[in-house]
Amino acid sequence: MRSAPVTIKDIARALNISISTVSRALRGMPEIHADTRMAVMRLAEELDYQPNQLAKNLLKSQTRTIGVIVPNMSYYFFSAMLNSIEEAAMQAGYSVLVCQSNESYLREKTQMENLLRSQVEGFIISLSLDTNNCEHVERLVRKNIPLVLFDRYADSIRASKVIVDNFDAAFKATEHLVENGCKRIAFLAGPPQLLLSNQRIDGYRAALAKHGLPMSEQYIFHCDYTQEDTLMQTLTMMNLPQPPDGLLTVSDRIAYPAMYALKQKGVRIPEDIAIVSFNNEPISMFVSPSLTSVSQPIQSMGMETVRLLLKQLEATDLAPYVPETKVMPTELIVRESSMRKAPTTQAASTVA
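Given the sequence above, the corresponding structure tokens read:
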């Protein structure tokens, strides 16, 4: 059950002044004494008062519209998620307004404010790479505006989430490389602040520890998801005194330029280096060699995201809202990039 937004009447009652005085103070009218104007502005900020009439009436609006913010619609994962979200929302009688942050915190914040002005009744959000301060999203939670996060999220935000077990997926992907004879496994990860990437790093480390393989920080490289940075990081990786013979990449978008850089350097895949990635984009089966990748149940994730949001939108009881976290299963799709013969005993001793 969503609570009503703060109104001018609330501010007037708290300060024991008239509604018209509050209204004039908020508009900066000169006839209002400076001390009164300052008190009104201070309390309005403290109570998170929204002067926009549409936002004020969000509780009563019945637009049947959901606001969705994703990092970039050109990414396969997010475009596929949007298809699933829109289909599930339409079946429930809701339309969807979609915005992209382009991996920018400031743009994400602006798009959220734009959607509020458009009277969306709830939000589905996947955070941008640039988002370190989640105050704008936490504000939605404080105002009891229905919200579901998916894929990229922050632990600090008390909201429902639809995610996969990144630790377990990375553990199994790394273990697959070990089982195919890899002894020195590197990880092309995402930016250091990206929670999803760090969870996969933890799974990677745990798999190495289980199999008694050395874990060296020099084998972890953080990429910003651009092709240029990935090419540079890949070449730096292969110039190590002992270059890796196995590689885990945080997403297929990083795997493709990494494979290109390796081929340009004359490194054979999978003979010299076996590769496993994440997201299982459709093109993974058509690149050469075809790419082993972790598949996420995107259609089910989109449907589950909408289900959790509808549960909040349609709540009628007065019980406090308890966020839910839905962890979806993953599947390792094995292809040519990781399948090679295990090294002989003699060869193995030379790469310890």
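Confidence is low (pLDDT under 50) at residues 53-60, 342-352. Try to locate this feature in the token string yourself.
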